[in-house]
Amino acid sequence: MRLITLILLMLSFGFCASSQNLLILTKTGHYRHASLPDAIKAFVEMSEENGWKSTFTEDSSFFTKEILAKYDVVVFLLTNKNILSDEQKKAFKNFIQSGGGFVGVHSATVTEMEWFWYGQLIGARFIGHSGVQKGRIVIENKEHASTQHIEANTLIWEDEWYSLDHSPREDVNVLISLDETSIETKEFQNKSMAMGDHPIAWYHHFDGGRIFQTQLGHRSELYQDPIFRKHLIGGIHWASGLSN
Fold first, then answer.
1. The pLDDT of residue 10 is above 80
2. Domain limits at 45?
3. Is the residue at 187 inside a domain?
4. What is the full DSSP assignment across 45-99?
5. Where would I find the H helices in 98-218?
6. How far is CA 229 from CA 18, 41, 60, 99, 104, in A?
7. DSSP bridge pairs for 80
8. Would you state the pLDDT for residue 189?
9. Closest Cα to residue 127, out of 86, 179, 185?
10. Overall domain count for the chain
11. Residue 244: inside a domain, yes or no?
12. What SUPFAM superfamilies does the entry give (predicted)?
């Protein structure tokens, strides 16, 4: 078990009247983001600031019906590939169907690529990226908790731009999209990464649960960015049912 798990496995914070219980999974099945330590540090600080009781782990054995019932929101933080057993998938599905919240950060769309139900939950699947570069993101919804702090209609943002197997717009509520004319759309494994309609962050109700996904969050520096932190905090508040 990785050292970070030993240190952070049961790191938690005192309850308050509005305390939310978060299970933050950082398990990876393949590529490991260099930004993960900074992402964890940011979630520790956000937990302290917001009164969340957060459990950080790379151990998917937490995914039992009994353990998940203790949490309000499950966060997949920079996860990827296959990370849950069949029994753990059943427990996670039960958690969502029981009204649980889910937040996916960046590579959650590269996670459990062969699980059909999870594909519906997350909204769309990763097919590649155009690398890290500056691009223009469009704030489509300023009323949601994850975007209401952003005053501008567009922002120049440096990130790794994921492309998806389809635009999830018909099935989700898009919050932020990428203006593809603002980046160099590259090929990934001989496939064009151009999508046309290119959602970056969205939310929806799915199978009884509340789902928030943001494709942002590749670079370490972003986890110190107050705009990005408020984006994540708002997403968690919405997923936990604290905001509409």
1. no
2. 3-239
3. yes
4. HHHHHHT-EEEEES-GGG-SHHHHTT-SEEEEES-BB----HHHHHHHHHHHHTT
5. 116-122
6. 19, 12, 25, 25, 14
7. 28
8. 83
9. 185
10. 1
11. no
12. Class I glutamine amidotransferase-like
